[in-house]
Specification:
Strand content: under 5%
Number of strands: 0
Number of helices: 8
Shape: globular
Distance between the termini: 51 Å
Low-confidence stretches: none
Radius of gyration: 19 Å
Number of domains: 1
Helix content: over 70%
């Protein structure tokens, strides 16, 4: 949907593209901010990890691959609601569809599967929407998007290559960055361990 919003014909394509670029940046910043919150707030186990809830896993769902981080707030909700808000600011009809997708396809299944409490998702949604709205303000979006649009004019090939990779990182919930950072932290820890 972001790519559709990027290439669609509109009366103000430059403004729309500024909103899209600053919105993608806001989503990434919001997810990083939430990662910091998760590390600094008291740990909240996921519903599937709380024996007293007697949570029954839905048939066919395996919880083995779940990352057992604190469940509050939901970084999935932050990311997808930031992107949905970005799309909404460019096209209201597409934005309503994006909000429905974020809520029904991304967030509700995470509650149903016991990965998050409703409040985890609600707070994540608020953070995502707020981040996208802040970064859509004229001064901020122009500061963020201006150099990127200049790059697009100067070298479209490298811009679109990086824009594709960035959208892929967002579409996979920043998992590729998580895997890379975990790998490098593990290598660093091993190196430091062997150095002593």
């Amino acid at each position: 949907m972001l790519w559709w919003a990027w290439f669609r014909k509109s009366g103000n394509q430059i403004k729309d593209r500024e909103i899209i670029l600053s919105g993608c940046f806001s989503a990434l910043i919001a997810v990083l901010m939430v990662r910091g919150l998760v590390l600094s707030l008291p740990f909240r186990p996921r519903p599937i990890d709380v024996p007293s809830l007697h949570f029954v896993l839905p048939i066919g769902f395996e919880a083995f691959g779940v990352i057992h981080w604190s469940s509050f707030p939901s970084d999935h909700a932050v990311l997808y609601f930031a992107i949905a808000t970005t799309i909404f600011l460019v096209s209201r009809k597409a934005g309503i569809f994006a909000y429905c997708f974020a809520f029904l396809v991304v967030c509700m299944p995470r509650i149903y599967l016991g990965l998050h409490y409703p409040t985890d998702v609600l707070v994540g949604e608020v953070i995502g929407v707020a981040a996208a709205c802040v970064f859509a303000r004229k001064a901020i979006r122009e500061a963020v998007a201006g150099p990127l649009l200049h790059w697009l004019d100067a070298d479209p090939a490298s811009f679109y290559g990086c824009f594709y990779l960035s959208s892929f990182v967002l579409a996979t919930n920043v998992d590729s960055l998580r895997v890379m950072s975990s790998f490098f932290l593990q290598v660093l820890a091993n190196h430091l361990h062997h150095a002593h």
